[in-house]
Amino acid sequence: MRIGLLTSGGDCPGLNAVIRSAVLHGIKSYGDEFVGFKDGWRGLIEADYLELSRHDVRGLSRVGGTILGTSRTHPYNHPGGGPENMIRQLERHGVDAVIALGGEGTLAGAKRLADEGLPVVGVPKTIDNDLDATDYTFGFDTAISIATDAMDRLRTTGESHHRCMVAEVMGRHAGWIALHSGMAAGAHAILIPEKRVTMDRVCEWVEQVHSRGRSPLVVVAEGFIPEGAEEALAGKGTESSGRPRLGGIGEWVAARVEEHTGIETRNTTLGHIQRGGNPTGFDRVLATRFGIKALDLVHEEAWGFMASLSGTEIVKVDLTAALTGLKTVPMQRYEEAQVLFGR
Amino acid sequence: MRIGLLTSGGDCPGLNAVIRSAVLHGIKSYGDEFVGFKDGWRGLIEADYLELSRHDVRGLSRVGGTILGTSRTHPYNHPGGGPENMIRQLERHGVDAVIALGGEGTLAGAKRLADEGLPVVGVPKTIDNDLDATDYTFGFDTAISIATDAMDRLRTTGESHHRCMVAEVMGRHAGWIALHSGMAAGAHAILIPEKRVTMDRVCEWVEQVHSRGRSPLVVVAEGFIPEGAEEALAGKGTESSGRPRLGGIGEWVAARVEEHTGIETRNTTLGHIQRGGNPTGFDRVLATRFGIKALDLVHEEAWGFMASLSGTEIVKVDLTAALTGLKTVPMQRYEEAQVLFGR
Amino acid sequence: MRIGLLTSGGDCPGLNAVIRSAVLHGIKSYGDEFVGFKDGWRGLIEADYLELSRHDVRGLSRVGGTILGTSRTHPYNHPGGGPENMIRQLERHGVDAVIALGGEGTLAGAKRLADEGLPVVGVPKTIDNDLDATDYTFGFDTAISIATDAMDRLRTTGESHHRCMVAEVMGRHAGWIALHSGMAAGAHAILIPEKRVTMDRVCEWVEQVHSRGRSPLVVVAEGFIPEGAEEALAGKGTESSGRPRLGGIGEWVAARVEEHTGIETRNTTLGHIQRGGNPTGFDRVLATRFGIKALDLVHEEAWGFMASLSGTEIVKVDLTAALTGLKTVPMQRYEEAQVLFGR
Amino acid sequence: MRIGLLTSGGDCPGLNAVIRSAVLHGIKSYGDEFVGFKDGWRGLIEADYLELSRHDVRGLSRVGGTILGTSRTHPYNHPGGGPENMIRQLERHGVDAVIALGGEGTLAGAKRLADEGLPVVGVPKTIDNDLDATDYTFGFDTAISIATDAMDRLRTTGESHHRCMVAEVMGRHAGWIALHSGMAAGAHAILIPEKRVTMDRVCEWVEQVHSRGRSPLVVVAEGFIPEGAEEALAGKGTESSGRPRLGGIGEWVAARVEEHTGIETRNTTLGHIQRGGNPTGFDRVLATRFGIKALDLVHEEAWGFMASLSGTEIVKVDLTAALTGLKTVPMQRYEEAQVLFGR
């Protein structure tokens, strides 16, 4: 078969490892050929692609980003989009099937396209870990690793200066990165979109820690909204979509903590470093296994399905399952973490 | 309650994170007190322990090793061992329950002791990932991370010199570390105890890679035995227990590859660096959750049970379940990896 | 002798390694005793100190921050300050000499105090590398290492999205961190306080790189002021001291680049992670050697002198030499880097 | 000009950064063209080379190894070698000058060839830091960084098991890597080729540390020979060249320590990971500056000269200066480190 790959949406460490293993498995096990569509659905729609040989994917398991480029091109709304045009393009260029790597939006598009006849399978990708129907996706562990390392650093400087340190991490709608990196770094408060907490409560945790001579660490997901502060934030810190602006909430929390407690407080917004660079071993293994599975799904002609992690197994699930809703942090997980707050 | 903690067997990154979260959770949620028995069962048998306050466990989530020390003292065979003596010691020192962190041997001991009246719960620990009844244990991810990083380094020097590089990793009876780190590093052959492979087959993979101008990477678990080479190895490379000696098989494989293929080949035995140093974020989260769960098990009086990972949940399992046998690499997982060999 | 140590000003990876080696060397070679004054000059003025035994400094060579705490307390202006009060405190507590670790301000204070009779020697500390009279100070290499690693990560995500990435690093008055980390990461433009560059020129570099299909990386020191933009910045982005506000210039540059070139541009302000965490091997060696030298200076009664790096040697220099002015990036070094801009 | 680059001898992190900066500087500043000879002098002698465009060197500053490959081909003894043949090859392929990156042997060859008419300049390369006439060479800092990190890991597992840990590092004739990484890691004994020490003395240091409840760390350079043990070692542990065999001395020292002190002792031989992988920021900057300087030397027609680090400056030195002898660790540096031994 001749199979096209594309990566769509925000990038994520591990995308290249998926591409590599799918290509190597296909060449060796099935004698497949591969093309890579550039910049997500745009490459498919505009037939902008490159041939992918074994040589092109060598050494890619450890390389962050995506060699195919990515974009937020919508598969239906973009001029020339939609299943009919795409099927025509595939036929014209002799491509038999598509493996689409992406997040919720990409997979929703892939599902609809599959239902309308496009031979497409999916690979789930979300650095935020907010996709249902898979235990984890690659990229999340790398983000945790980077954020944890950064917080370890913040703590030593915080302790030296007797400061409160605030770290803002990614997570607009789901607080997984904050929860895991905060737990790993021994944070004294973790603030996530799923759980409204008043700033009074946050300041109480900070003061408990400070009163014992320690430097408090507060981890804030970018989508956290403090209880009672909706209006104050709404006035200046949100995007047109109504979401708090990247980088905004950490500064805001730090200012409030300093104001209310009198403790010198500094924010660091980790930003884009959380999604870049070499994937961790965990993410490389997961991505490699996803790539192998996705290729097998193509040969099963399991259109509209995707690779998924369940426990330690890679399984096949209907893309519909990935789209039942955002996987947010359950309150039981938050409470588990909370036993370590304050102190 | 007054609760004693002990760490037994080989050390593992994450032990301190378990200790920390159990202590902090106990102090805050239940008003518990804690002691730490030194060097595993020895500390309990000889009542050699230290008090563990909140202060003593601060900052421990990121610290490798175990502040309690560890040893291979047998809970029954050691003078003064056995449940009656231990129960007497606990009573004498006012300790109400024990949390034992250890591998298969430790947990088997804990189970037997629990059956005979000792109030003990377990936390599974094995850097080799060879314990059944839990998806993963802490330490394994850190070992993968270290081994993968080392192999990334070996590859650049291998490519520069057109050499074949061999990396020997831990794993006497189970090849999990070799499997995951090899897959992460893009190894061209992975050799594990669970699967006999002839050296001819290994050399074939090496030559395929070399003939395409690349530098082959072969990952060998320390317990791998090549098919047909049992005698050759038995003559010089094994311990009294009949196991291949640490560091032996990598050198042996490298020598055979160089001899048979004529390709310059170098072995590196990663050794003890695989089990030391700061745990990864993944392991810190897992260890922290295990500690919280173990403490809850104590308050449930779930003697003879342990904390365990199932998918993304921490659950309670009977220690018997951990002892049904070694969790080795299933052939289906090996075949999945094998599609990337040679090339 | 009984010797007091203090750390003053912003913290820096390596301070603990200095403390450790001075204490161990003193105990072993001279039979000295040590105290640590807390939070810089404040601890000396208020006689707030702890005894430092061999046990207290164990394992410190790899630990970031300072176990003594630090502050910006002025040695003269603080109530109870000045040489007479300090000498009285030292006598009262039986302290024979002081080793002061700090930057320009601290060393200027130490010099003046030494001239007025305080038995004090210095150890230079500046993460910004802006102290004259020493080739390097510890902390700088760690900052370079962290910034370079972060930029490696920014580049992979930048390439995937065809974005221009801006990284703001420390350096209010001297661009050393930007120069070295930018050169290490292969930046396409490096903007430092010592060199006014117009935004037109910056955009030209960015466009050159983008036009060849690459993702431009622009590194900006926090003290950079674009030529012709002084007024625009002055209106909103500066502190009362007239310095551009931490975190301000990177965002500003990113906005201008996006506006002028139409290329999607994202800023990341690395912030406090640059000064925290474990020191690099280079910094540990330098700090350890500084500590040994400082202790020897005490026994030489070389009051008013400090340890310094010259080539590969640790030498003794008069504190006056450290105070002749800020060590800024010479234009010849900037031009050397500039041959790699744009492209 | 059309300039050829070659890398010869053992590989070293930073070689690619030199290649990159020389090529980019030449293309941009002088309009040069570049070729890369494959596998050191062999590529020049056999005219086996590739063209090097700007595209070929992109992203190389952070990549370990050498894209040109390396070998130990001798420039005179190899068939077709010697200045006349080489000059003929350069003329035939239109190459005007050569930049040779290598260690003592390579630079000696380059010097002799320059004297006999070959237009060649040098870039010093030695991971062991044993070249005179330059303060440091790239690769050394990366090796220190890797070895220090490994020792940090060894210490945590050593402490948990109350073991003595031995780490064998590179350094056949010069103990720089052992000295710096040992000092950085807080080693309790550092054993180098330049200083004979009896095993009794080593055991004394180990016992001092162990008696205070700590886990001793002993760092051994591969070329260390214990005083009084020359014969014992000569019998089994040396190569035909008379040098102790790689990997031999660490095991030997560990066995002796365990035997004499009764303390459980484990060796880890770091091996090839010390020379592989991404260079540190320090090494990337140094290598980048060397590349720029080497290109300038070519345009100065400074045949027989090389780039060198003096303090913080890159200077031009006669290759003869690099060949006056091995730069070994001076006793004063060893004694400086020794104040921290034992304890």
From TrEMBL, chains A, B, C, D:
The keyword Cytoplasm applies. The active site is at 128 (proton acceptor). Residues 2-297 form the Phosphofructokinase domain. Pathway: Carbohydrate degradation; glycolysis; D-glyceraldehyde 3-phosphate and glycerone phosphate from D-glucose: step 3/4. Its EC number is 2.7.1.11. The keyword Protein biosynthesis does not apply. It catalyses: beta-D-fructose 6-phosphate + ATP = beta-D-fructose 1,6-bisphosphate + ADP + H(+). The record marks 105 as: Important for substrate specificity. This is ATP-dependent 6-phosphofructokinase. It comes from Nesterenkonia natronophila. The lineage of its organism: Bacteria, Bacillati, Actinomycetota, Actinomycetes, Micrococcales. The gene is pfkA.
